[in-house]
Fold each of these.
Amino acid sequence: MDLLKRYIPVLFLLALVVAVQLVTHFTETTYYLTQLTMSAYYSVVVIGLCVLMGYCGQISLGHAGFFAIGGYLAGALTTHNLMSFRDHGLVAVLDRIGLLVAGKDLYGGDLLTVEPWAACITAVLTAGLIAMAIGGPVLKLKGHYLAMATLGFGIIIFRIALASAYFGEADGISEVPAFRLLPGIDISGSFGARILNYYIAWVVVIVAIILLLNLIHSRVGRALRAIHGAEEAANAMGVNTSRYKLYIFVLSAVFAALAGVLVTHYNGGIGPSEAGIMKSVRYVAIVAVGGMANIWGALIMGVVLNFLSLRGVFGSYDDAVFGVILIVIMLFAPQGILKINPWQQLKSFLPLFAEQSGEETPE
Amino acid sequence: MALLEIQNLNRRFGGLHAVNNVSFNVEQGMIKAVIGPNGAGKTTLFNLIAGNLPANSGKIFFDNARINGRKPYQIAERGVSRTYQNIKLFHGMTALENVMVGRHIRSRAGFMAGMLNLPWTWPEEREVREKAMEYLDLLGAADCADTEIGNLSFGQQRGVEFARALAMEPTLLLLDEPAAGLNIYETAEIGRLISKIRDSGITILLVEHDMSLVMDISDEIVVLSFGEKIAEDLPHKIQQNEEVIRIYLGDEG
């Protein structure tokens, strides 16, 4: 019964995904699918962050950093030509075991690059290892201090992306090839692959959300929420709090990095703005709007707000809008906008009813 | 060997010697109380035993193994459970979920098993839920199982915290002022409950201010004053101990 209740929204989501595709098909608005595909990938970052922040209570202002590690590494590995290192032993070995692919560049020159699957796995593993390395010391911090430490990490990644020639400095990386998942199934931004890529992205989201839903309803999920509720007591109940915090931090970093890899292949490139602080703030704002400990809220808001942003609805005030959203949510709806009870809100503003609405929200 | 042995334990906070060379044993199956005026070092002693604070020197043995220097979760895994003076429940979770966390060390499903929802975790999960419900029921809190913890009364929260501690199926239960904030009926109720828990085979060490409760239920009492142990005896002997009477009532008597 519980299981059914857990998965019914997933089926509903699946139906909605198909329905939206059909609607765009019949109204000849398939160009929306491009932004919906990208929004889907960004939502993977958001739901991963939601479990870390909303359920386990550990903030991260560095998730754009993990997204960028994934995207940049996948981009760099699949575009940098290894032809001139062909005689180097390591390159020869990689070539021998099939981790490299040969091709032609725009001008017909020979190209030797890392195979996208190998690049993807390398990028995601690297992000996971970096998360593990910085998570150990950083997760000992709480509240504002953790926020500042992760912010620092995000800035470092941003500056590295901006400063190193290997990652293309201010231009970023372009001409990233398609990612052949299976024969005939490529992640690419080419016009003809639009519908296919829309479905690939949403399958990724659905798999991700099923994994996370399972996790939060499991023994580990309870322990994570217990850490949020009262870390000391969780430890006294036998929960290895530092290890659990580290694992969920790494898991959410891996989700962010995977999204980074896929977006980079879909867009055919990545630039330093993806690693910027405002991107991290945006992810945090979306989790907050969705209601913190509400993975469906995070997904819905992740898709809606990213879609609006990508369509350019917020214009050049894009980042400002997300800043305002964060402030407004913190002030008026710390439970997220999906849980606003307008009557309750109204009562709390009218002195006449103030005493009756004395229901306090626990901190 | 006794279940819990505390040997020459010391803890200083700056110039304050909060626990000063304290030694005592807790035998299997007894209720032992630690009493003393405010600031005597009782809660510090508890935090040392549970691993929340490191000791400056001294040794703590539980079940023949040295436990000081270990992390709280490792001490919990060995079978030491506790409640807090100022209730520490998991906010944002229901009463039942709180007690289910108490089953953490009695279940195994990890990150991978949880994410993949592997079938072998299903019976385990069902058992965790049923056991948690049993303990809630034992504490008379079954009807608020699905209530978020913040919406419960103080007395109910005490009950849930108790149920959570018991759900661990501990060997030793540390109770930090279990009767604080309760009225006389609730206090009598909790006294009966503590005796019942002891009768089920769980050893209890408690800190308590309510003297009538302590005298009623304890098998042995340790008295602390300014961090030092000044007496350790049977309840009726403690009542007649002049040193104890002096620290509680003052010199003029």
Amino acid sequence: MRPFVYKKVTTVEGAVNSIRGDARFLGGGTNLVDLMKTGTEQPSELVDISRVPLMNIEEQRNGGLRIGATVRNSALANHPVVRQRYPVLAQALLSGASPQIRNMATVGGNLLQRTRCYYFYDPSYVECNKRTPGSGCAALQGQNRMHVILGGSESCIATHPSDMAVAMMALDAVVRVQSASGEHAIPLMKFYRLPGTTPHIETELKRDEMIVGIDLPPVVGRHSHYLKVRDRNSYAFALVSVAAVMDVEAGNKIREARIALGGVAPRPWRIPEAEKALAGQTADEAAFKNAADILLKDAKGQRHNGFKVELARRSIVRALTIASTPRGGQ
Amino acid sequence: MEDETKSPLDDLTRRAFLATTVAASAVPLVAQGTAPAHTVACTLTVNQVPHQLKLDPRLTLLDLLRERLGLTGTKKGCDHGQCGACTVIVNGERINSCLALAVSHDGEAITTIEGLANGDALHPVQEAFLTHDGFQCGFCTPGQICSAVSVLKEARRGMPSAVTADLAATGPITLTKAEVRERMSGNLCRCGAYTNIVAAIMASTGGDIA
């Protein structure tokens, strides 16, 4: 591992005033430390924000929830308000990683974790536009079973690995960001960039900005479900995941729906047209299949993952079916 | 009378022998020929013993325990957070020590497999692993046991898992085999001793685990 300067800070002000050059913030370290071991990440300085007191989860007057950036994934999954009012988020968190990693990983770090594309992780492969801009993409012609079916480019076909972010996307989360010049908010819908020709730039977050928290608005509906489909039943990344949140009226009519997909794109994937098509419809298989078709209209498999398109279609229908039952998948 | 044919090595334990022969090559992986940018003064309390240390920021908690403090019970399996062999308990929570920078845990209390027993009296979960033969080669066992001790506490605290039927319900969780399997999924066993590991943990659920 390349030598680096280590600085522990205990305030947000201390953090944003310390960040400079290629320095990186260290949260739980579950992804960053791992990438530093392989040499994929080589910061010359770490600013340790893991003990900055942003560990509160507070109910808001509008019925929403404010989550501090250094709250651990396990603490968020275990919070009574999350378990009762945002079960789709608790389900997503509990389906991610392992209990040990959830005890370490912060909420802010979860949003910023990087792809698990094998070629990005292993510097012995020279080609990776995300690691070394302009070097090419080894996954395009290599092993690409885990890769995207939506939103990729000729530069990069890596997926975003988070479960939490998929549920938060369906919940219309807002990311609160601070720098030395002040605080601002970025809706999660606009937080992640598609790779295009610059896959090394993954979010709208600037180098000197720090995530200080995430706001969840009040839930749109009591019906929700997080469905994760993977190669083994626990402790594996999603081949496909679906976060579904619905408000279903008496008479089985859908008032509102939110759908986000994981494991299929460079960011949690959400298409508002699919949700508009569900509004006012009867909650049945025909409506769900139509929504799935809209979500996947541009889906295209790589050499090894054509199966993901049909898997995603069926997973969307199944997640919406479970969510629309009276107990909403709970 | 002393046996004159006895080799000096006969008096050495396997662990001490390994320590002497490995010492020369036991350069922490962080170093790899490059000097640290600086060192950081830290105090970490391991198994109730405080250690004042000057640490290379690159040193993981796992390498600190094994290479600097001689606590080789905690194992290095994958060194990437995928196998759980390095599981230790920090401030009451289980973590992967291979993904933790030691400097980041300044001032914290760490419990390793060496800290679970009370003198010669094994921890009840250690006893249960012996009774139920919850291992074969034993390499993953320290991590399995540190994880299992945490599983029992987490269930008692009411922490849900991905297979908990009713997330909204509060209060202690009853550990079924399905719950134990899900909660132990961060600990791999290449020998495949899972059936007996689950049995050992199920047998521990009734006891009063400190």
